[in-house]
Amino acid sequence: GPPPVPSAPGAPMDIKIHDANRDYVIVSWKPPNTTTEGPIIGYFVDKCEVGTENWTQCNDHPIKICKYPVSGLFEGHSYYFRVRAVNSRGISKPSRMSDPIAALDPTEFERLHAKKLGGKLDVVSYHDEEEAEGKPAGAPSGVYASETDRTYVVLSWKAPAYFGKAPMWYYIEKAMANTEAWQRVNTKVPIRSPRYAVFDLAEGKQYKFRVLSANMYGTSEPSEPTGLIETLELK
C-alpha cells in the first residue's frame, strides 16, 4: 500500500520467525521493494500476543540489519510480529504480520506435534528424579557467540543435565577484557532458553561472558567463560 507519510519507505516484506524457544525468537525480513524514497535508517519490530489487539514495539532505536532477536516472551503464549521501516521522512506502514508462533521449548514442539499426529510417546527416565529435588542445577557449558554485531551479541550454551521438577532459569554475566569485574546482565527477566541476546554493548570492544543456572534451591557455579568476543565497529 502507499506509505502513510509522503516519501516514507514502503513496508518491509517476507517476515519470518526463526529459533523459537521458551522466551525468545529471532525475527527476519526483507527490505521494502521500492527504492525511490530516501535511504532506510533502520527498522522497528512490533509484537502482539495472539487474542489481543495490543501491538508493542520491541526495540527502542531503529536497527540497521534485517534481523532482530526478541527476548522476554512468556512461555506458552503465542505472538504475531511485524516490522516497520524508517527513513529521514517518516515510518512506513507495517509489514504483513508473521504467522503466529508459540514461545515453547523446541522439545515441547516435538511432543505437541507427536500428540497431534496421535503418535505414542514412551517417556523413559534413567535417573531417579527424587534425588534431584532440593538441589541447585549444575553449571551450563559450551557458551559461545552465535551472532556478533556492533552493540549486541547473541549467546548460546548447553543446558546442564537436569532432572528436577523445580523450574530452572539462567543468569548471564559479562566482563570487559583483562578484568574479573563480572556484571550480571539480566536482572529483570528470567531466561529459560539456552540462548540470549546481550544488548547495549560498546562498539569495537572485547568482552567475555559466562552463564549460571538457577532454581528455587540456589544458583550453580558459573560456566567456563567464553574467549574474548569483540563487537563489530562501523568503519
TrEMBL record:
InterPro entries the UniProt entry points to: FN3_dom (IPR003961), FN3_sf (IPR036116), Ig-like_fold (IPR013783), Striated_Muscle_Regulatory (IPR050964)
Domain Fibronectin type-III: 11-106, 139-234
Keywords associated with the record: Repeat
CDD domains: FN3
PANTHER family: TITIN
Stated name of the protein: Myomesin-2
Species name: Characodon lateralis
Gene (name only): MYOM2
